[in-house]
Amino acid sequence: MNIEHLKTYVYVVEQGSISKASELLNLSQSAVSQQVHSLEQQFDVTLFSRSPKGVVPTDIGAVIYQKALNILTIYDDIFAKIKQSQSASQVLRLVATPIAYSYALPCTFYHISQKYPQYHLEVESVSSNIVEEKVLGGYADLGVILGRPHCKSLLGKKSFTDRVYLVAGSRLDVPAQITKAQLYQYPLIMLLNTQRTQQQLEKSLLKAGIEVKKLRILYELESIESIKMSALNGYGLAFLPYMAIKKELYNKQLRLIDCEGLQLENNYYLIKRREETEPDSVLNKSFNQLEKVLEDTIC
Fold first, then answer.
1. Which of 7, 75, 249, 287 is packed most tightly, with the most Cβ within 10 A?
2. Quick one: which H or E segment has residue 229?
3. Rounded to whole angstroms, how far apart are CA atoms 143 and 189?
């Protein structure tokens, strides 16, 4: 079995796209496809089903993904132990949801490296669901996700809260204050509803009495950055986290739209495996230390 092929497969599953995986791995799309095909031949199964939105693992593909994570965890742990034996550093593996990774945590990463030089921090950005899977499977030590962990085997503690605002670019003709009824009149750009961030937003909108299905959603995109660019160009309104738009608000490229009685928040949780509860364990100490740093260093 080729370890690199397994790694490639994991990347494709987590990115939901062969092209995205190829960019991250610095490989051609044909090379990534060949590696996936090689695994399919080896196992004599179909690993993915294709859709307009990308690739989705088949039922057996999802099982193989979980097993691949276990294998890669053991494989990486071997090298981590070797690296640790050769230095005084403790490897700390952290995975975070893309929004937190990109906008909230860069300052935290720096302060951890300065305040706790005994840690060699390895960080990765994946969706909240996959963060849970990686922490649960031991592929990562700690994770940062949106909302409480779904899995009961994970211990979660709220780390920080970020407001979500309705915003418009300078080119879009919309008043600074609108009613909920008026919200239905304006074009909106949203995240794909397969993402936990969008699912959380839709729950909050429904709770506020807004029927999501009746909104004028022009199109759905897969990243906050692409939605922000659409809003900047005046294509439509967007619900965006404050930490992603601070600079654009300061530069007056985006403006806040006050929608009657609508207040939205995202709560982010630091998670770890429940069995890691020994007070003196390295992981438990890391959890407590990271929790303290997070309180003071969110960008």
1. 287
2. helix 224-232
3. 28
